[in-house]
From TrEMBL:
Gene3D superfamilies: NAD(P)-binding Rossmann-like Domain. This is 3-oxoacyl-[acyl-carrier-protein] reductase. It catalyses: a (3R)-hydroxyacyl-[ACP] + NADP(+) = a 3-oxoacyl-[ACP] + NADPH + H(+). Its EC number is 1.1.1.100. PANTHER family: 3-OXOACYL-(ACYL-CARRIER-PROTEIN) REDUCTASE, 3-OXOACYL-[ACYL-CARRIER-PROTEIN] REDUCTASE FABG. The keyword Lipid biosynthesis applies.
Length: 246
Protein backbone atom coordinates (compact mmCIF):
# COMPACT_ATOMS: atom_id res chain seq x y z
CA UNK A 1 0.00 0.00 0.00
CA UNK A 2 2.95 2.33 0.48
CA UNK A 3 5.41 0.53 -1.78
CA UNK A 4 8.63 2.48 -2.44
CA UNK A 5 7.47 5.43 -0.37
CA UNK A 6 10.06 6.91 1.97
CA UNK A 7 8.91 7.29 5.58
CA UNK A 8 10.63 9.07 8.45
CA UNK A 9 9.40 7.90 11.85
CA UNK A 10 10.59 9.83 14.91
CA UNK A 11 11.27 7.99 18.16
CA UNK A 12 11.24 4.70 16.25
CA UNK A 13 13.62 2.60 18.34
CA UNK A 14 10.86 1.23 20.58
CA UNK A 15 7.14 1.21 21.38
CA UNK A 16 4.61 2.67 18.98
CA UNK A 17 7.26 4.26 16.73
CA UNK A 18 9.06 0.93 16.29
CA UNK A 19 5.78 -0.79 15.40
CA UNK A 20 4.91 1.90 12.85
CA UNK A 21 8.38 1.60 11.28
CA UNK A 22 8.03 -2.21 10.97
CA UNK A 23 4.45 -2.00 9.67
CA UNK A 24 5.48 0.51 7.01
CA UNK A 25 8.41 -1.71 5.99
CA UNK A 26 6.14 -4.79 5.74
CA UNK A 27 4.04 -2.76 3.32
CA UNK A 28 6.97 -1.88 1.08
CA UNK A 29 8.20 1.48 2.39
CA UNK A 30 11.81 2.51 2.88
CA UNK A 31 12.08 3.65 6.48
CA UNK A 32 14.27 6.09 8.34
CA UNK A 33 14.47 5.19 12.01
CA UNK A 34 14.99 8.31 14.12
CA UNK A 35 16.17 7.81 17.67
CA UNK A 36 17.49 9.87 20.57
CA UNK A 37 18.37 7.17 23.10
CA UNK A 38 19.71 3.67 22.50
CA UNK A 39 21.64 3.27 19.23
CA UNK A 40 21.57 -0.50 19.70
CA UNK A 41 17.76 -0.62 19.79
CA UNK A 42 17.54 1.63 16.73
CA UNK A 43 19.96 -0.66 14.89
CA UNK A 44 17.80 -3.67 15.84
CA UNK A 45 14.82 -2.01 14.16
CA UNK A 46 16.92 -1.31 11.06
CA UNK A 47 18.07 -4.96 11.02
CA UNK A 48 14.48 -6.21 11.36
CA UNK A 49 13.40 -3.98 8.48
CA UNK A 50 16.26 -5.29 6.33
CA UNK A 51 15.18 -8.86 7.16
CA UNK A 52 11.72 -7.95 5.88
CA UNK A 53 13.39 -7.05 2.58
CA UNK A 54 13.07 -3.28 2.90
CA UNK A 55 15.71 -0.56 3.03
CA UNK A 56 16.29 1.41 6.22
CA UNK A 57 18.83 3.44 8.11
CA UNK A 58 18.92 5.10 11.50
CA UNK A 59 19.52 8.76 12.35
CA UNK A 60 20.22 10.11 15.80
CA UNK A 61 18.45 13.44 16.29
CA UNK A 62 16.75 15.24 19.13
CA UNK A 63 13.44 16.39 17.61
CA UNK A 64 13.41 19.45 19.85
CA UNK A 65 16.69 20.69 18.38
CA UNK A 66 16.33 22.52 15.05
CA UNK A 67 19.91 21.87 13.90
CA UNK A 68 19.49 18.12 14.57
CA UNK A 69 16.17 18.04 12.71
CA UNK A 70 17.55 19.92 9.68
CA UNK A 71 20.57 17.60 9.48
CA UNK A 72 18.32 14.52 9.79
CA UNK A 73 16.00 15.59 6.97
CA UNK A 74 18.96 16.49 4.76
CA UNK A 75 20.35 13.01 5.33
CA UNK A 76 17.01 11.37 4.41
CA UNK A 77 16.84 13.27 1.13
CA UNK A 78 20.52 12.68 0.31
CA UNK A 79 20.13 8.95 0.97
CA UNK A 80 16.70 8.19 -0.52
CA UNK A 81 16.12 11.22 -2.82
CA UNK A 82 12.56 11.73 -1.59
CA UNK A 83 10.46 11.97 1.56
CA UNK A 84 6.81 10.96 1.36
CA UNK A 85 5.65 10.23 4.90
CA UNK A 86 6.55 11.84 8.23
CA UNK A 87 5.35 10.29 11.47
CA UNK A 88 5.84 12.63 14.42
CA UNK A 89 5.85 9.98 17.13
CA UNK A 90 8.67 10.92 19.56
CA UNK A 91 7.35 11.79 22.97
CA UNK A 92 8.14 11.89 26.68
CA UNK A 93 6.24 12.23 29.95
CA UNK A 94 7.28 14.07 33.11
CA UNK A 95 4.13 13.80 35.19
CA UNK A 96 3.29 15.69 38.34
CA UNK A 97 0.44 17.69 39.78
CA UNK A 98 0.55 21.22 38.45
CA UNK A 99 1.31 22.66 41.91
CA UNK A 100 4.45 20.52 42.03
CA UNK A 101 5.46 20.65 38.38
CA UNK A 102 8.77 22.39 37.79
CA UNK A 103 9.23 24.88 34.98
CA UNK A 104 11.91 22.68 33.44
CA UNK A 105 9.61 19.61 33.42
CA UNK A 106 6.93 21.70 31.74
CA UNK A 107 9.39 23.04 29.16
CA UNK A 108 11.00 19.64 28.42
CA UNK A 109 7.69 17.99 27.59
CA UNK A 110 6.48 20.91 25.46
CA UNK A 111 9.84 21.00 23.66
CA UNK A 112 9.83 17.34 22.68
CA UNK A 113 6.12 16.66 22.24
CA UNK A 114 4.98 19.92 20.64
CA UNK A 115 7.98 21.90 19.37
CA UNK A 116 9.41 18.65 17.99
CA UNK A 117 6.31 18.21 15.83
CA UNK A 118 6.59 21.83 14.65
CA UNK A 119 10.29 21.49 13.76
CA UNK A 120 9.97 18.17 11.92
CA UNK A 121 6.87 19.33 10.03
CA UNK A 122 8.60 22.57 9.04
CA UNK A 123 11.65 20.58 8.04
CA UNK A 124 9.86 18.29 5.57
CA UNK A 125 7.50 20.85 4.07
CA UNK A 126 9.76 22.16 1.29
CA UNK A 127 10.51 18.65 0.01
CA UNK A 128 6.87 17.52 0.16
CA UNK A 129 5.77 20.70 -1.64
CA UNK A 130 8.36 20.02 -4.34
CA UNK A 131 6.99 16.48 -4.69
CA UNK A 132 3.41 17.88 -4.71
CA UNK A 133 2.36 15.21 -2.25
CA UNK A 134 2.98 14.08 1.28
CA UNK A 135 1.50 12.57 4.40
CA UNK A 136 2.15 13.81 7.91
CA UNK A 137 0.88 11.77 10.84
CA UNK A 138 1.16 13.25 14.31
CA UNK A 139 0.91 11.01 17.36
CA UNK A 140 -1.12 12.96 19.91
CA UNK A 141 -2.89 11.30 22.83
CA UNK A 142 -6.43 10.79 24.04
CA UNK A 143 -5.57 12.97 27.04
CA UNK A 144 -5.00 15.84 24.60
CA UNK A 145 -8.76 15.57 23.97
CA UNK A 146 -10.00 14.76 27.48
CA UNK A 147 -7.41 16.33 29.83
CA UNK A 148 -5.76 14.34 32.62
CA UNK A 149 -4.89 15.28 36.19
CA UNK A 150 -1.15 15.11 36.81
CA UNK A 151 -0.16 15.68 33.19
CA UNK A 152 -0.55 19.43 32.57
CA UNK A 153 2.63 19.58 30.47
CA UNK A 154 1.82 16.45 28.44
CA UNK A 155 -1.84 17.33 27.90
CA UNK A 156 -0.99 20.90 26.84
CA UNK A 157 1.53 19.51 24.32
CA UNK A 158 -0.80 16.82 22.95
CA UNK A 159 -3.74 19.24 22.66
CA UNK A 160 -1.31 21.58 20.90
CA UNK A 161 -0.47 18.79 18.45
CA UNK A 162 -4.16 18.50 17.54
CA UNK A 163 -4.28 22.25 16.86
CA UNK A 164 -1.05 22.09 14.85
CA UNK A 165 -2.52 19.20 12.85
CA UNK A 166 -5.62 21.22 11.90
CA UNK A 167 -3.60 24.31 11.01
CA UNK A 168 -1.00 22.51 8.91
CA UNK A 169 -3.76 20.48 7.20
CA UNK A 170 -5.31 23.78 6.10
CA UNK A 171 -1.98 25.37 5.12
CA UNK A 172 -0.79 22.38 3.06
CA UNK A 173 -4.04 21.09 1.55
CA UNK A 174 -3.53 22.93 -1.76
CA UNK A 175 -0.14 21.17 -2.08
CA UNK A 176 -1.68 17.71 -1.67
CA UNK A 177 -0.05 17.21 1.72
CA UNK A 178 -2.50 15.50 4.08
CA UNK A 179 -1.97 15.97 7.81
CA UNK A 180 -3.75 13.91 10.44
CA UNK A 181 -3.28 12.94 14.07
CA UNK A 182 -3.74 9.71 15.96
CA UNK A 183 -4.80 9.93 19.59
CA UNK A 184 -3.95 6.62 21.26
CA UNK A 185 -5.55 5.68 24.54
CA UNK A 186 -3.60 3.36 26.83
CA UNK A 187 -1.27 1.26 24.74
CA UNK A 188 1.07 -1.45 26.08
CA UNK A 189 4.54 0.14 25.84
CA UNK A 190 7.42 1.21 28.08
CA UNK A 191 5.46 4.43 28.66
CA UNK A 192 2.48 2.60 30.24
CA UNK A 193 4.73 0.02 31.95
CA UNK A 194 5.58 2.78 34.43
CA UNK A 195 2.01 2.57 35.82
CA UNK A 196 1.33 0.45 38.90
CA UNK A 197 -1.31 -2.33 39.03
CA UNK A 198 -3.85 -0.11 40.76
CA UNK A 199 -3.51 2.56 38.06
CA UNK A 200 -3.87 -0.11 35.34
CA UNK A 201 -7.02 -1.54 36.98
CA UNK A 202 -8.46 1.96 37.23
CA UNK A 203 -7.81 2.48 33.53
CA UNK A 204 -9.41 -0.78 32.45
CA UNK A 205 -12.58 0.19 34.30
CA UNK A 206 -13.05 3.20 31.99
CA UNK A 207 -12.24 1.46 28.69
CA UNK A 208 -15.38 -0.02 27.05
CA UNK A 209 -13.29 -2.63 25.19
CA UNK A 210 -11.81 -3.64 28.62
CA UNK A 211 -8.20 -4.01 27.52
CA UNK A 212 -5.09 -1.96 26.86
CA UNK A 213 -4.35 -1.35 23.20
CA UNK A 214 -1.52 -2.98 21.28
CA UNK A 215 1.08 -1.07 19.32
CA UNK A 216 -0.10 -2.85 16.12
CA UNK A 217 -3.55 -1.34 16.63
CA UNK A 218 -2.02 2.14 16.43
CA UNK A 219 0.41 1.26 13.62
CA UNK A 220 -2.40 -0.04 11.40
CA UNK A 221 -4.17 3.31 11.62
CA UNK A 222 -0.91 5.09 10.74
CA UNK A 223 -0.59 2.75 7.73
CA UNK A 224 -4.13 3.58 6.61
CA UNK A 225 -3.49 7.33 6.90
CA UNK A 226 -0.18 7.02 5.04
CA UNK A 227 -1.63 4.92 2.22
CA UNK A 228 -3.82 5.54 -0.81
CA UNK A 229 -6.73 3.95 1.07
CA UNK A 230 -7.00 7.37 2.68
CA UNK A 231 -7.21 10.26 0.20
CA UNK A 232 -10.00 12.49 1.51
CA UNK A 233 -9.14 12.76 5.18
CA UNK A 234 -7.10 15.68 6.49
CA UNK A 235 -6.94 17.70 9.70
CA UNK A 236 -8.56 14.86 11.68
CA UNK A 237 -7.63 13.23 14.95
CA UNK A 238 -8.43 9.52 15.00
CA UNK A 239 -8.86 8.13 18.49
CA UNK A 240 -7.46 4.63 19.01
CA UNK A 241 -8.60 4.18 22.58
CA UNK A 242 -10.98 1.22 22.91
CA UNK A 243 -13.88 3.66 23.15
CA UNK A 244 -12.55 5.39 26.26
CA UNK A 245 -13.45 8.93 25.17
CA UNK A 246 -16.60 9.39 23.12
P1 LIG B 1 8.14 5.17 24.35
O1 LIG B 1 8.65 5.91 25.52
O2 LIG B 1 8.21 3.69 24.33
O3 LIG B 1 8.77 5.73 23.00
C1 LIG B 1 9.00 7.08 22.78
C2 LIG B 1 10.18 7.20 21.84
O4 LIG B 1 10.45 8.60 21.60
C3 LIG B 1 11.46 6.58 22.40
O5 LIG B 1 12.08 5.82 21.39
C4 LIG B 1 12.31 7.79 22.75
O6 LIG B 1 13.70 7.56 22.67
C5 LIG B 1 11.86 8.77 21.69
N1 LIG B 1 12.18 10.16 22.04
C6 LIG B 1 11.95 10.78 23.23
N2 LIG B 1 12.40 12.04 23.18
C7 LIG B 1 12.93 12.22 21.94
C8 LIG B 1 13.54 13.31 21.28
N3 LIG B 1 13.73 14.49 21.89
N4 LIG B 1 13.97 13.14 20.00
C9 LIG B 1 13.79 11.96 19.36
N5 LIG B 1 13.21 10.89 19.94
C10 LIG B 1 12.79 11.02 21.21
O7 LIG B 1 6.62 5.65 24.20
P2 LIG B 1 5.41 5.12 23.31
O8 LIG B 1 4.37 4.67 24.24
O9 LIG B 1 5.85 4.27 22.20
O10 LIG B 1 4.91 6.54 22.74
C11 LIG B 1 5.04 6.94 21.40
C12 LIG B 1 4.14 8.14 21.19
O11 LIG B 1 2.79 7.79 21.47
C13 LIG B 1 4.47 9.32 22.11
O12 LIG B 1 4.31 10.53 21.41
C14 LIG B 1 3.42 9.19 23.20
O13 LIG B 1 3.18 10.41 23.83
C15 LIG B 1 2.25 8.69 22.40
N6 LIG B 1 1.23 8.01 23.20
C16 LIG B 1 1.50 6.84 23.84
C17 LIG B 1 0.49 6.23 24.57
C18 LIG B 1 0.69 4.92 25.29
O14 LIG B 1 -0.23 4.48 25.97
N7 LIG B 1 1.82 4.26 25.19
C19 LIG B 1 -0.78 6.81 24.65
C20 LIG B 1 -1.01 8.00 23.99
C21 LIG B 1 -0.01 8.59 23.25
Amino acid sequence: MIKDKVALVTGASRGIGREIALTFARNGAKVVVNYAGSEEKAQQVVDEINELGSEAFKVKADVSNEADVKAMIKEVINEFGQLDILVNNAGITKDNLLMRMSESDFDDVIDTNLKGVFLCTKGVTRQMMKQKSGRIINVSSIVGVSGNAGQANYVAAKAGVIGLTKTTAKEFASRNILVNAIAPGFIETDMTDKLNEEQKEQMLSIIPLSKLGKTEEVANVALFLASDLSTYITGQTIQVDGGMVM
